[in-house]
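Archive entry. Fields below.
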Amino acid sequence: MTDAAREADRTLLERRLRHAGLRGTDRVVVHENRAVVVSVRRDVVRVHRGFAYASDRVLRAVVAFRDGASAGRGRAARRELLAFPVHDYVPPAAVARRRSRLRPGDHETVAALYELHATLNLRHFADRLSEPTFRLSDRMRARLGEIVVDDAGARPPEITLGRWHLERDGWTEVAKTVLHEMVHQWQAETGRRLDHGLDFRHKARAVGIEPSARRRVPPDARGARRWID
Ligand SMILES: [Zn+2]
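PREDICTED_STRUCTURE:
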């Protein structure tokens, strides 16, 4: 992990935290520690670098924690920011040497996915779905996407997309995959079963995607065909 990549994350995180309401006099320092993810001392906010990949909602919790660290609101914010899996994005230094998940351009991709989700949520789900966490996976090859939901509601739903899919199939196909996962999110958040049954097929048609569990994506340059989900 290079210093340039680290500085890029810090700059992005500072900009996003200011957008989320962080006061202008605060300085943002990033770290990759295992234990304490956010701490405040005078006007220096030390934040785990992984938060550069969090949703706006999580960043608002970081700001609320900074603003009210000792009050009840601070405790709620702390719970929310601790639920975000920072180490999945930026693992502690020892792990990072073995397996880095960070790639140049990842933050732009993740930011675009949040925006895509917000747009599709408004267009197809009356803005009722919660804001998920997006992850990119190197290992996801046979499938294009997956969603993990926590029925207890302690963590936001996690939508993972294969980096392979993003790099090769283009944004239109990626948007269909996100919509497919959003139909599963809709199932989870309206108390339905997660499956590809009648509800799924009905809703998928309503939002304009193929109502099938598996989807053929256009062949790549080598003529390979793949199926998803
Ligand atoms: Zn599915």
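CURATOR_NOTE: Residues 77 and 166 are 32 Å apart (CA to CA).
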